[in-house]
Amino acid sequence: MSGNRPPGYPPGMTRSCSSTMPEKKEISTCPPDRSSTGATPAAWVRSRRLDEARRLLEAASLSIDQIAAACGFGSPITLRQNFMSAFGSTPSSYRRRFDARA
């Protein structure tokens, strides 16, 4: 274990959440423990990042690369893989479907 970071926490995030992730949107609360959500801290963080990515895809004209960076994904590929796994769609396809409804 590195410092105060338990297994499953992303680098730069400690149990106390006293450190911030540079160049990334700050997460306002510490990840809850598994007993309250049924998810690991890493899954909770990934879910929050995907929620923010969906919001940005719906509301902003940012590129997929910019959205991936803003949401804390290491690359657009990582965003696409996680997005596809969670929602069954790529970020680009999701954006097109959302734009078609407007």
Question: Explain this structure to me?
Answer:
It is a single chain. The chain is mainly alpha-helical. The protein has a domain at 42-101: Orthogonal Bundle (Arc Repressor Mutant, subunit A). The protein has 5 helices and no strands. The protein has helices spanning 34-37, 41-59, 64-70, 76-87, 91-101.
Question: Which terms would index this structure?
Answer:
single chain, 102 residues, mainly alpha, Arc Repressor Mutant, subunit A, 5 helices, 52% helix, 0% strand, globular
The topology string of helices and strands comes to HHHHH
Structural class: mainly alpha
Radius of gyration: 15 Å
| The CATH homologous superfamily of the domain at 42-101 | Homeodomain-like
**Mean of residue pLDDT?**
77
Structure at a glance:
The protein is an all-alpha fold.
